[in-house]
Amino acid sequence: MKKALRYLGIGFVSLIALFILALFVLMVRGSSVISEAPPVSHSGPDALQDSMLVARGQILVQTTSGCQRCHGQNLAGQQMGEPDAFGLFVASNLTAGLGGVGSILDDAGWEKAIRHGIGADGRVLVGMPSEYFHAYSDEDLAALIAYLKQLPPVDNELPKTQPGWLAKVFLGVGLYTPPAVALDPEAPHAAATPDHGSLDYGSYLVSVAACSECHGAQLKGPEFEGPPPGPDLTRTGNLGAWMESDFIHAIRTGSTPDERILDPNMMPWPYFSQMNDSQLSAIWSYLSSLE
Ligand code: HEC
Ligand code: HEC
Q: Which ligand has the minimum distance to the alpha carbon of residue 279?
């Protein structure tokens, strides 16, 4: 009896040891995923300090992509939530103030960060949704960068993002692949933004607004990978019963035809609400065209 128990005990301890070892191996693998960024070539949008370009970039930053929802109202960066098993996530200070990357990045560096998810110091960025911003046309990217380069400097020194053990295990298993690793560094880029009014323009806006970050790659709602969950945006969801005017009203005011109020902390409609009618209409047409 005593012997049997002892063997059981040894078996149990070995099982735990094996489990810890497996976690450790996955964490090491996860760390190696983010240890080195791939080389990317610079396709070279010229971000001239032209007032028209800057104004266009401001709209893209503040409305279409809502960069402020993570980087803060003045884009001087912020810590996103309290550190937990997933780690500490800090959206960088984008200005040229103390602790900001604005004084370090040249146009190629900005492009690398926004389009490829590689930081100013060559780091693989974690938590920056470049997989969606990758779609930006050269034209719009130049405008974005022109706007970012003239932000008023704000001093804000922040700690760096530190993926926690659980994030490393996720990276190790391949449940999350950072954009710098997932994206093809040589993928060609559209020079021009699709024609306003075309279905492609709707798809373009959905991409650079990162709707899939929460609504899933197919916009069909939660997938295993994606926190936080957003509902199905195709005809099989609530939107199947909506008209275009209901959609525009929902994005503008946060209130749905069935009289729910969309939580602005979960669904960043206050940013998207600044899009003009033709943009919202293009998004609606694209969403309605999905299976
Ligand atoms: C969902 C949140 C989120 C959104 C939206 C977002 N970012 Fe980020 N961004 C981050 C995080 C988090 C980091 C830091 C990641 C790290 O340190 O690993 C980051 C890093 C960056 C960096 C790299 C800075 C450095 O430290 O080298 C740049 C540049 C940047 N973001 C620009 C933008 C721009 C421009 C937009 C809008 C087009 C944007 N971000 C939208 C979360 C976000
Ligand atoms: C940061 C995550 C996030 C992003 C980015 C996001 N959404 Fe949402 N969205 C949500 C969540 C969460 C809800 C549910 C909110 C609630 O019920 O209060 C939602 C709800 C909605 C609804 C209402 C759906 C319904 O069934 O009532 C629409 C429409 C919508 N989102 C459209 C969009 C579009 C279009 C984009 C891109 C331009 C987008 N969302 C980007 C998280 C997001």
A: 2
User: Angle CA(70)–CA(74)–CA(79) in degrees, nearest 5?
Assistant: 40
For 192-209, write each residue's pLDDT tens digit: 999 998 999 999 999 999
- How far, in Å, is the centroid of ligand 1 from the Cα of 110? 10
Is there an atom of ligand 2 within 6 Å of 211 CB? yes
- State both tokens at 88: 């500490």
Which residues sit with their C-beta closer than 6 Å to ligand 1?
Answer: 61, 65, 67, 69-71, 89, 91-92, 94, 101, 110, 113-114, 119-120, 123, 125-129, 133, 144, 148, 160-161
Question: Does position 223 have pLDDT exceeding 70, yes or no?
Answer: no
Q: Identify whether the C-beta of residue 73 lies closer than 8 Å to the C-beta of residue 65.
A: no
State which ligand 1 atom lies nearest to the alpha carbon of 121.
27
Q: Which two tokens stand for residue 208?
A: 């650079």
Q: Which atom of ligand 2 is nearest to the CA of 262?
A: 18
In this structure, what token pair is assigned to residue 108?
Answer: 């190629």
Long-range contacts of 116-119 (CB under 8 A, 24+ apart): 116/37, 116/40, 116/179, 116/180, 116/183, 116/185, 117/178, 117/179, 117/180, 117/183, 118/37, 118/40, 118/180, 119/37, 119/92
Distance CA 235, CA 45 (A): 37
Q: What pLDDT sits at residue 46? A: 73
In ligand 2, which atom is closest to the CA atom of 287?
Answer: 35
